[in-house]
Amino acid sequence: MSVVGPSFLRMAKAATRASHKCTECGWTTARWVGRCGECLTWGSVIEAGAPKLVSVTSTVPGNKATPIGQISTDQAERLLTGVAELDRVLGAGIVPGAVVLLAGEPGVGKSTLALEVAAHWARAGRTTLYVSGEESPAQVRLRAGRTNAITDSLLLTAENDLGTVLGHIAQVGPSLLVVDSVQTIGSAEADGSPGGVSQVREVTGALVRVAKQCAMAVIIVGHVTKDGSIAGPRLLEHLVDVVLAFEGDRHSGFRMVRATKNRFGPSDEVGCFEMADSGIVEVPDPSGLFTSRHPEPVPGTCVTVTLEGRRPLLAELQALVAKTVLPQPRRVMHGVDPGRMAMVLAVLERRCGLNMAGSDVYLSTVGGAKVGDPSADLAAAVAAWSAQRNIRVPERMVAIGEVGLAGELRPSPGTGRRLAEAARLGFTDAIVPADMPQAPDRVTSIRDGLRIHAAATLSSALKTVVDRSVPFLGDRAVARPLLVDRKRRQLTPVQHGSQQS
User: Which residues in 375-409 are b (16+ Cβ under 10 Å) and which e?
Assistant: First the structure.
């Protein structure tokens, strides 16, 4: 039997001692790895040296601390960018010295929007510097001619070195700097190639420092990974003041700018744009983009009003229910959460007696809209029920509300703004959840010409649709025959059991 000595134990402990550390989350490991095992960040694991106790000597500050009430806010007054939808997201303009990160997928229009903002800023008589790290000056000039973004106050340069970019800033002294993109700029002071974790951190930190010192607004264009997150270290989002997500479908020209972080304004605002041949165009009233127009109501369609930030937007949900020949019926969803819609279909079957076990269900939004608002549950349920029962939903009716597993309807935030938008666009009927659980069921009120039908349960909401709709069979609508009331000189529906005189 062998005996293990103390020296061998010390060697084993030294071999398993953590010698590498992640710069993002602090995870430690005994050897170097390319990806952190905790936060899954690439290139963030570095060798950790022995801890040292460093004593820092105090220095005399150059400026004395000032009471906060005596600090002037003149240098923090907002300036309009010239793009109204972007100003709406930023909070009535951009603050001098603010650093804005604009991130989005390739081809969504980040460079086009940044060049549009730079051109509008320069037309106001303010010096603007556009630094392109991905395209040559001739390529940027070609796009500027197509989008009518040519002005003398807009200066253009193509650089990939951070020191040269800082030299241009010192030489020009712009009030707005656009960097396209931060992943293409490199610094000799940091390790790695441009786009790496260390390089992005160093470049962004330098731009933030010069922006605060010179009171210069900075717009940084950033890339995103395949999972939709912003490329680079998580520290990048903490360094900047505003983070804007530029979203859009490549098969649709509609684009949305969403603020996920804003130190100087609301962080839940949304701006709407549309890509055209002449560049990017603002869409101040996007409600009509996500609805379709039919000559007459058809089964399987219902309109709802969602909230994107604080902006109410109309969205139309279409459903198709068809008999299946497969042993497992299909559930195909586009633009909505499949899990949530499966829950809505289950509530329809269990609480409302709708049998869809032998039918395929297709549910989609119009115009490529992505609806994640729970208030669209009621519209999805009405559309699926209408398609299965072949009953037409009134054309000028909206349905707003969240559906619970017990079949109850839950109120959604911002219902007043949703109803005001529906009334503005000419809708005549709206189905909303009852305000309180003990409120009487199926109560109708009128507000701004809009008949509001309050329902406590999903079954009551469907009964309201039946009362205001007409059954549909094939290409003909089945309506009750009408009699002429000779005394009142108007048409009245025939009651069951009555005879025509």
Answer: bbbbbbbbbbbbbbbebbbbbbbbbbbbbbeebbb
Residue 79 DSSP symbol? B
Domains of the chain: 15-47 (no CATH), 76-284 (3.40.50.300), 289-476 (3.30.230.10)
Q: Is residue 155 classed as helix, strand or coil in its secondary structure?
A: strand
Per-residue pLDDT, 488: 37
| CA distances in angstroms from 423 to 8, 339, 382, 451, listed in the order given | 81, 31, 20, 9
Q: Is the pLDDT of residue 400 over 90?
A: yes
Helix or strand holding residue 275 (H, E):
strand 270-276
Q: Is the peptide bond before 181 cis (omega within 30 degrees of 0)?
A: yes
| Torsion sign, CA atoms 178, 181, 184, 190 | positive
Which two structure tokens, joined as six digits, stand for 145?
């001619």
Backbone torsions φ then ψ of 67, nearest 5 degrees? -55, 140
- Maximal C-alpha separation, the chain: 118
CA distance 126 to 81: 11
Q: How far apart are CA 454 and CA 444, in angstroms?
A: 6
pLDDT tens-digit series, residues 171-211:
999 999 999 888 889 888 887 788 888 888 889 899 999 99
